[in-house]
Amino acid sequence: MKNKSLSFWLFLTPTLVALALVVFIPVLEGLFYSFTNWDGLTFTKVVGFQNYITLFQDKAFINAFWFTVGFVIVTVIMLNVIGLGLALLVTQKFKGNNFLRTVFFMPNMIGGLILGFIWQFIFTQGFQALGNAMHLSWLQNWLTDETTGFWGLVIVTVWQMSGYIMIIYIAYLQNIPNEIIEAAKIDGATAWQRFTKITFPMIAPAFTVCMFLTLSNGFKIYDQNLSLTNGGPYNSTQMLAMDIVNTAYNSGNFALSEAKAIIFFIIVAAISLLQVAYNRKREEDL
Amino acid sequence: MKKNFWKRLGKRVGVIALAAGAAFMLAACSNSSSSGKDVKITILQGKVENNKQFKQIAKEYEKSHPNVKIEVTSIGGGTQYDPVLKTRISSGNAPTIFSLAGPADVKQFKAHEADLSDTKAAKAAQPGTLDAVKNDQGKAVGLPFNVEGYGFVYNKKVFEKAGIDPESLTTVDKLTAAVKQLDAQKDQLGIKGVFALPGKEAWIMSDHLLNLYVAQDYNGNAQKLYKSKTMAFSKNADMKTMLDLQKDYSIKPVMQMDYSAQVNQYFSQGKTAMIQQGDWIYPTVEGIDKNFAKNDIGMIPIPVPGEEGKLPVGTSLYWAVNSQKSTAEQKAAKNFLDWLYTSKAGKKDVVDTLHFVPAYKGYDNYKMKDPLTSVVFKYSQSHETTGWAFPGYTGTSWDPDVAQPNLQKYLSGKQSWDKTVQNMTDGWAKQQKSANN
């Protein structure tokens, strides 16, 4: 990249301008506004770190944070376990595995908002009717408290995204050379040994990618949250992204919302990068 | 080096040509309007359900006033309107006429609000309807769209079958007795519950129900409540009685029910005797069952001790005129609003096209089109009304952040009523302390 001639910069300019206009400038502007009392229209004074102090005392934000953390932990584990499980299943040689791939991937083609509404119907009408008919109390009153709201969100997310994670695992599973597996078989390795000692290490890069995707997606989720529970009841299932949006648009507290968004950005970026760095290192070790 | 020269020149020429083209297009865009003394007014308003009607009225007005052009944009749902208006203002594309929801908006957009107290419409406004939109100088900066009212919307057939006259349920005791009687005959009456209380829609409790027990402390004046450092909430025990009554005799589970379940699924299909709602549900009910809507529904006030027989009637949106537009444009905007509410043709549109219950004097000979607005019109004409104080808090963060979650917590049985009241009044005091207004 020594030859940074005029044409080099000319070709780069459109991208740089676009990126600056829609990413860099808004982020910097947002960072600035988070230090003011901006109301979405004007600001009258710079308040320093006041918004950052307020947000750490904001019960709703802290609640949303822990709710989101719990959600991320559960969904990351479930998505990767189920995604890998499905991938292993459909890479076996049997009739109809292509059909199953399509079926498992299908939920991912439906938008999150619509999915949320569909599942809301299933939870509140389907589960209710089933619970009434079979006298199972755990099937009744879904989405009316924090616990069922939490598991409702988990179910919808896992149902939607595991097909996508499956596809990534499939790609890596198919890249494992057959010779290695056969050699292991001849050496007398059991199916479990072949999986833990060969397959799993070979798909470590897929693991890094999927962890990253599920982690950042879990933190940033909004549409399912909106259409399934809308944060209710009593804001107990409000996740970070929704809390940020509501702080701005429902409560009209734009500056505080900006501060929350900055903190949110730092958290997501830090966790995702840490995770990628750690897994990359592990990949090399293997 | 030299080899590349022509190539590079070619590229440069290309870029320059592109830039020139873009500049030309920009110039062409900004140079489209301005011909003669025609005035164009733009309207951005928050009552999205009347979008079609407002556009129709604008066309009609353009016909009778050929030098005025009107462009109507409607943005729905209280929560999305403000950000759009803010964006329009900060991008230099501010509307001439916009809507305000209450005192919080009056404060927020004060740099853009023209004094409307000298308009014909403001002079014709019914007493009290301008209280919520007076600026710091005491001048009215908003004109009410209409007045609306809420209470218990009831199913006439269910009450007839049970032999109860809904109009006689004027006190809490009478209402409670009737509710118990209806509940006992649930199966014969073919209803699933006496009420349908949508626990998911916190605003039904935090805005409409709460208002009944807070408004009296502030004479029903939203502005007064908005400026109050504390919230008295002296009638909270009465609110608990009414909320409990609705909750205990509602179709269950309450916390799963939303607005569409309440209105579309249960009330419109005769599965409940009454619901706490307002005249705005009429189009929805009509959309499901025209005959039912026309013949079989009515509305009674929610009995509040000390205020029996009065319907809470108020305004949810006001027109404002942008003071930063040219004088000609402001004048045209004011003329349009005056025409709409005080001229003969305009009045006809207000009542017949928009189905608005007028917030203005001079509508004595008009008749409302549907049973619910007729009830509101009747109460408002005879001044048997109480005010809406809740616009004094709906625009503040107290409503979504404090009142709604706390009331939902109480409904879910996770929190006692005393704690709920405590949290709500404390939360109000905290907000008002930091809001310096």
Provide structural commentary.
- The complex is a heterodimer of chains A (286) and B (437).
- With 286 residues, chain A is mainly alpha-helical.
- Chain A has one domain (51-285): Orthogonal Bundle (MetI-like fold), CATH 1.10.3720.10.
- Helices cover 75% and strands 0% of the residues of chain A.
- Chain A has twelve helices and no strands.
- Chain A is globular, with a radius of gyration of 23 Å.
- The model of chain A has no long low-confidence stretch (mean pLDDT 90).
- Chain B is an alpha/beta fold.
- In chain B, the strands form two sheets. In chain B, strands 5, 6, 7, 8, 9 and 11 form a six-stranded mixed sheet that branches.
- Chains A and B meet through helix 1 and helix 11 of A and helix 1, helix 3 and helix 19 of B.
Number of strands of chain A: 0
- Rough outline of chain B: globular
Unreliable spans of chain A: none
Number of helices of chain B: 20
What is the terminal-to-terminal distance of chain B? 70 Å
Proportion of strand residues of chain B: 5-15%
Instruction: Give the largest chain-chain interface (CB within 8 Å).
Output: A-B, 30 and 33 residues
- Tell me how many strands of chain B there are: 11
Keywords (chain A): Cell membrane, Membrane, Transmembrane, Transmembrane helix, Transport
Membrane topology (chain A): Multi-pass membrane protein
Family (chain A): Belongs to the binding-protein-dependent transport system permease family.
Pfam families (chain A): BPD_transp_1 (PF00528)
